[in-house]
């Protein structure tokens, strides 16, 4: 049994149980394509087994290297983009006390680079690092992605100036392909410690490989617990395709049915700001996996109750193309009761003695009822707490559901051909060697426009 529960009580006005269970045959087919590794993109199914065979040698190595970094660095810069950083960030941000992050009390403080090309962001990061003891983890499966490559070039220069080349090399760990790519060459040349991104695992499915596990261990997360949670969900997902017993299959079946009924946008909702980056990871997982061949649900995310005061109006009364998937955290990490106030000038005494969590839960229920009245179907995912085990379950739940959903639509969920379009234009505009024809064509095009 998984501790995560998937519920569809707030869907039943939109889809009957009978209609949901009509999806069973299609799910059976997609499930067997996945577990028998016979579907599209089957060379990228390594993620299915990542939590299963706990590789003690690898985990011990990660823990040893993490301890070294934790001892020597007050700040660790994680360089990566997309699937090479979002999974780690999602879990780190979920588990880090919010004010330790901004107040600098987290040890080490984790900061990010190479996930954008902003000059100001990177200049300010370098300035910040001038006075800090720091180390770098650079992650790129291909080893050639422009954003992390440029960030690493800037940071490598900075760290070498600060500590000298030899000590700088002790403060850098690379996570990349085992044999090819520019980052592999740099790693060999400078003697950095390194980890290999498995060939059979794409970026957005790689959080349970060293891509995610190394930064997570450095940030102080219990990676073995995360893997135990993921392994439990894996067991449930592989054991059966039954919509009654496999929560990821049930979620995939329902979201596909809603899509076919014209619900084109899925909004992932949370009521815990700690989950903000989890939703960023989720958006990438589903967006990059499903959005192909003019198909795919558009993945959006909101943080409630904050965004009820911005996006709430649209969700309640805008275009009726939405559905929501709400993550509920059953047990908060802290106790906080609303105090009684003699004057009661704010009129809040009617809530005195209740926990803030209870009020948040009533906001969630009230919102679901309002949104379903407004023709927005709601699905619910319940996790017991924000801890490594629950997050491990949640990661695997979404990965498995995403793969099934892709197969239900008939696309290959494991490639991302569309990402090349902007890169080709950027390389042509920047006159990258090898892009001479494209450079000429794009220059003509922009001169004509
Ligand atoms: O999910 C993916 O495959 C992508 O988001 C990649 O992770 C991202 O483009 C970064 O690629 P790389 O790790 O090769 O630098």
Amino- and carboxy-terminal Cα gap: 59 Å
What sort of overall outline do the alpha carbons produce when their principal axes are compared? globular
| Total strand segments | 10
Average pLDDT, rounded to a whole number, is: 96
Kindly name the structural category: alpha/beta
Provide the β-strand percentage band.
Answer: 5-15%
CATH class of the largest domain: Alpha Beta
**Which stretches are poorly predicted, pLDDT < 50 over at least 5 residues?**
none
Bound molecules: 5-phosphoarabinonic acid
CATH homologous superfamily heading of the largest domain: Glucose-6-phosphate isomerase like protein, domain 1
Structurally, the number of domains stands at: 2
Which percent range fits the helix content?
A: 40-55%
Q: Whole-number radius of gyration? A: 23 Å
Description of the structure:
- The protein is of the alpha/beta class and 449 residues long.
- The protein folds into two domains: 5-39 and 231-409, Rossmann fold, CATH 3.40.50; 47-221, Rossmann fold, CATH 3.40.50.
- 49% of the residues lie in helices and 12% in strands.
- The protein is built from 18 helices and ten strands.
- The chain has a five-stranded mixed sheet, sandwiched between helices.
- Helix 4 packs parallel to helix 10 (210-218).
- 5-phosphoarabinonic acid (PA5) binds next to loops.
- 5-phosphoarabinonic acid binds next to loops.
